[in-house]
Each structure stands twice: as structure tokens, then as C-alpha cells.
Amino acid sequence: MKKAFSLIEIIVVIVVISIIASFLISKYATSINSTVKTTVKADIALINSAITKKNTKNILLNKSKITYLDNAMTNQKGLEIFDNILQVPMISTSSSQKELGKWIKISNNKYRVYLSKLEFLEYRFKNDSFSCVSDLKLCKEFE
Q: CB-based contacts of 107: which residues, under 8 Å, 6+ apart?
């Protein structure tokens, strides 16, 4: 008697493994997307809270309100951004890298964060407010 697998048995096993793998891969992709969105929401809340805290502190000390969030150069990877308001600054990425969930300084008062390789949120610091200037529907999702 032979103790080998037939071609049909091998094909059935490969098909079953492929089906299981396709479900796992889709769940993994959804999980990563959800994690990035949660991180970005937390970052936005942290930045807004830090701006309010810093302005309150400056008012109590009779100092002027904050006019900038950091001194970092624009569109540079690996720089500390939001260091004027956060105790532990965030590390920037660049628009060529487009690292998911990391912030990019676009101009002196504009910042961008990528949710996917094609989708991003853009925020502006103006009049003591860090507000979304992207698509209204996308902004509402993150407020």
C-alpha cells in the first residue's frame, strides 16, 4: 500500500488554506486602518488639549498667546514637531514617505497626517485653534 497523498487531496488542502488566509488578510488590513484612525484621533485631541493648556498658562503668567506650534522645517522627516506645546514632541515624516499616522509639517501653520497612501487630513493652526481644513465629511469623522 502506498502512503502518499493524491493530487486531489493536495488541491483541496491548498484551496482551504487559501480561503482561510484571505479572511485573515482582510481582517489584518481592517485592523491596521482602525489603529491608524484611533491614533490620529488621539493625536488631534492631545494637540488641541495642549494648545488650550499652554494658552491658559500664558494668560495666568501674563504672557502672550502662542503663535506657533514648533520651529521645525517643513516637509522634513525625523524632526520634532509640536514641541512648543507638547512635553514629548511627535516625530515628523515627509510627504514622499507618507508614513501612516505620522504628521507632516506642510507650512508654518499647516500640518498633514496620512490615513492611507492616498487619503490624508490637513490641519491649520490659526487664532489659537487647530482646525481641520480637509473634506468636511472626513473632518467630522475625526472630531
A: 74
